[in-house]
Amino acid sequence: MPPLLPSSLTPHVVVYSTPELTDLLSRHNLPPLHHILQTYSPLSQVITRTTALVPVTHPAFPLRFSDLQAIESACKEDEESRATRTIDWIGARISRKSSGWVENLEKSGKGEPLSIAAGETRWWDELKSCVDGDRTPERGEGWSHPVALILATSTLHPNALQAVTNLQQRVAELPVWIDPHMMRYTLIVHPTGMSNLSQDEAVALFNATKKQYGLQTHLLPLTLSPPTTTKPLIPLPPQLPPPSLFPMSPEKELRRPPVQEPPTPTPPLETLNLSDEDTVNTNRFIREFVVQSLVPWMERSVVEWNEAYSSTRRLPSRLFSSTRRLFGSSNPSSNTNSGFATPVASPTASVGSLPFGRDSVQPLAQQRRLAEFATFLGDYKLAVPLWESIRKEGKGGSDILPLLLAPSLTLEAHAAYALSPLTTVPSASSQLRALKYAVRWEQGVLDFVNLRGEKWLVWAASTNQEDEPSSGILLAQAALIALRKGNRRTAAMWYVSAARRLEKCGIKSLTVYFLKTAYDLLKLPPQKNLSPSFDEIQGEKRGTVGFDAIMPSIEHSLGRLKYGIGDVEGAIEFFLGLLKGSPSGQGESGEGDKVYLDDFRVAFEHLKRISDSGMSFEDLSLPVPLSQPSLCKIRFSGDSSGVDEEDSAEWNVMEEHWTTFWKTTPASKKESVKRSGGAEVGEPFWVELVLKNPLDTEVVLSDVAVKAKEISAGESGTEEAEITVESIPTVTISARAKTTVSVKVVVNKVTTVQFTHATFNFLGLVPISEPLSIKGKRLNDTIAHQRSVAYAKETYLHANVKHSGGRLKIEFLDEGHNEMTVVQGELKRTRIRVKNVGGQPVEEIWCMINEEGISAWIDIENTEKGEDEESQNDDEEEEEEEGDEEIVDDEDEEEGEEEDEKQATENDGTTMVSTNSLKRSDPIKIPISRILGDNAHLESRDFLDLNLVFQSHATGSGKLSALFIFREREDSTTFLTTFAQRSFEVETLLDVVAAVRPSASFDQGYTLHLELENVGSVGDIVLTQVTTLSPAWSCASFTTGVTKLMSNVIPERQVERVFGKLRHAEGDTAGAKSSAEFLNRKLAGVLLGEPLERSDPPSLRLLVSQLGKAESPMDVSNGMIAHLLQSTRQQRLNLALQQQFPFMPPDDFRAIFPLYNAHDLDVILVWNIPSSDRRGFMLLSGLTIGPRHSILDKLIQQAGSVKKTRSMYAETAREKEVILGSVKECGWNKNDDPIVVNARTSGKVSHDFAKG
Fold this sequence. Notes:
Layout: E1 12-17, H1 19-27, H2 33-39, E2 43-49, E3 55-61, E4 64-67, H3 68-75, H4 79-108, H5 113-118, H6 122-132, E5 146-154, H7 160-168, E6 183-191, H8 199-213, E7 217-222, E8 231-232, H9 250-255, E9 271-272, H10 276-311, H11 317-327, H12 347-353, H13 366-377, H14 380-392, H15 401-404, H16 410-424, H17 428-444, H18 453-462, H19 469-484, H20 488-505, H21 508-523, H22 534-538, H23 551-564, H24 568-577, H25 591-610, E10 633-635, H26 648-663, E11 672-675, E12 679-680, E13 685-692, E14 699-711, E15 717-719, E16 723-725, E17 728-733, E18 738-747, E19 751-762, E20 766-771, H27 783-787, E21 797-802, E22 808-813, E23 820-823, E24 828-836, E25 844-849, E26 855-866, H28 872-901, E27 910-914, E28 924-925, H29 928-932, E29 943-951, E30 956-967, E31 974-987, E32 990-998, E33 1006-1014, E34 1021-1030, E35 1033-1036, E36 1048-1050, E37 1055-1064, H30 1069-1087, E38 1100-1106, H31 1119-1140, E39 1160-1169, E40 1174-1184, H32 1193-1201, H33 1210-1225
Helix pairs in contact: 4-6, 4-17, 7-8, 10-13, 13-14, 16-18, 17-18, 18-19, 19-20, 20-21, 21-23, 23-24, 24-25
């Protein structure tokens, strides 16, 4: 069974009716004869035969019937102009009907994307009917060339025989390029009861006509009586109107003579008014016409043409050319007289044989007509090779092969080859031909969808101009095919392209519909999910999934179109949805978002002008909220400066250290600790509202404020009870910027205030209210929570408003808010102002400095008091001068005492006592009563200025953090804390290399070698003092005498070397021995698994030695210097122990390890920079002197000899083994060779190396 071909590839039969027959049908409300005959097409079960006499059964054999006069009139028009009119006519029909189609789809609810995929589209049906209804013959193909001519007359003529004779003499006025080979058929309609001829006379007329003009004659008797049952009349496909019905240009309109107005057209017939007998007779005629006349005639033509075609293909053309070249030809210009005329002999014929030629007047090649007739008859075994041969000759055929061949991917190549010539020379005829190809392929190619048929339609649309509606309809049908295959994004892309083309044509209804369809398709979630439970595990609900690369363009186009058709609210909805920010890096910055924002502003202003004054816009919301609730916070009056969320953890750690310290004091009563600050009655505080602009353009907000409500003991609240919120008039946010807006709030009663929404006027037009809620965490505590998705309650910003109390404000009085810069080891002096900004006095204040990376000292003795704000600046200047003077006086006094006590020798043998512990320094209590005198309170608005000296040896960025703990009364059960922080930058100053080597002299044990390089950028450095600290070793200079002063200048990028001699001295032997026993005892408890006793190591006396005589020596035993030295050494030793003992808690180090070993040596390098008046020192630690004798050997052997028992805590046993290995490798357990051999000789030693 052959495949059903499209209707445009079926036999075309033209019909000519005499005037009396036309009047007869019209009087009985019947359509023209060709319309009546078309009603009976297709015929069922028609059998044809191939050239091999193989029968082919056609389940449906369609025919096309046309009026001969209409075809003759259409052929007189130029083909190019007719193609232009056809394309314009199709576009006009689609434009006129598109609004009704879209409205019907929306009313029926079939406008959704998935409903469209399952149904049909009226615009494609309209395009197909217009293309199929074009039955005008063309030069390039013969599908519409008539295969038969039916000459119809009736017996109503007074001389019926003469009427038949005149009819036979009717010559079809068709162009010469139309194939003249057509069958002529005579039809005599005999209206019984109306004709002057009886039935016998009519039969005699029929016999005479058949005898004279051939057997192709039929007598059709019709009673034309009213039908008993009505039959629907199938309408003809739409036909291109005549040229005169199209509007002319103004010039032609003026020259055209006036014509009468055409009569009002009668409404088209909807029923076929034929009786049952007439229907049977007409049906019999159609079948006899096809089966007994048309099909046999076509079969005979195919046989004859095939024999002629085969005779020319029996020998290859190369043989004929060789024979003609060797032997010549008697008549080279003669042609064969066979039935198949080859049109290659003349140039005009060869041009006419081209499938797309328009200038030729020669008929079609008989080879193509043979292929077309074979296709009509279903003889595909003959038709396919013929079409292949035509394709190879470049004369067409590629458009027909996909309809005849089995489905395969090779058909795509045929389609591309058929369309390729149409793109070289764009014209109206090529566009119309591509349109016909696309319609035929969509109708007749088997498995068109799975053969990627959407590509074929897109290729056909590319040959059409972008401003033609037909190209947009082709792209829309391609999108529909892609949608049926499940390719949603591809379908959306083609729908957008179709909408763009239809928009250029002015067809807004279909443009909006296609864009809306693409928009809905892109919002659909992906069909393939990662897992059905993936969303539940993530705790998220899958919403709309958009395609950021194309969605904004679609939304913007929809908004503009809706605004153009008057749907302003719909346009605002799309414009507002676009204000969510474009992806970074796409397009020019600010170009797209600025256009969207301007369009939204224009549309909204227009809506406000045309809408009622009472229209509410409160339901409008931005697609992406500007407020960032998780970043918003509340700032209270007097909050500590320099503290952010990153430093909150440090604040917590310092509070824990304070709590641990306070529990060990006798005054502890288990007081609680909480942070100070908060809202107070009548005092302003600020909601730090963080706003982020997601757009690439500037955004202006007005009347920025927050909504607040009072929360009682329950969950319910009363809106705006005694709460005053000030709004910010205008806030401008730059493109993709984030800004913080401080909204002032004042509460006049003790309550809890909750801030629920941020309010503002977007662009000064749209009132927006955004919630400030923070989503609760996912609950997973109970079985019910694990089985279902549950979240904790949303949280809001809130403030507990209370009566005014004591509150401290901490400020660093230095260079201001700029970053402070210090050099490595510099003694940096600054002041901290502690001010009571609360309403109640404060009785007790403690201070705590976080000494991680820095060493700090608070000079309590020089603390000063301030009373009022007006004299604050003057007091600061006076305090600064007095502080400097006091420091100088102290140094002069210490210098004088030192010079009185110093001995004449360089090594004066002074000592200092060290706690020898890793315990951090305790918080310092500020003696308010001693500073303020009789008034033991820090009253409201009073302040204290604390002098602080800090030092850092680590280069890079650092932070100076201070925690103040206070309470209003000493019997209060709650301590309040406030925190302050100051950042600084440490610059590199000196690069020091230190080495200790055994000495060859008998008066010294070791030689100290120091190499100092000035690597800073602060100018020359003066080395004023070199001091050593050690439990058992003293250091002296190699230079004898007391007149040598230490004052070495080190220029930039220069190196200075210092040498010293080290001698063993009788130091604190008992303290060193006690420290070693303490370490043995504590490590034994750790290795043997005993509980650790919290105790500190014994103190140790250190020897202080100086190299050379300093002009103003620094006393290292001074409280401030000693504290800074010990704090620095503690930090370094803690870091070293953490690396060496990773499985030991750092808090246990202070109860196990002493600070000094008997062999340790610290070197202190005191320097100053005259150009910037800076002073400081560097501490070199980690040097060891003298032989060590593995004092932990016995302990290690004892721990290793303990019998191992099986335990379920295998990990703990492995950790103990790691600790034991670390103890073996630690510095306390080193074993050195105590013998040093030096060889000396007296006199001169000579040797002749020439002798060996």
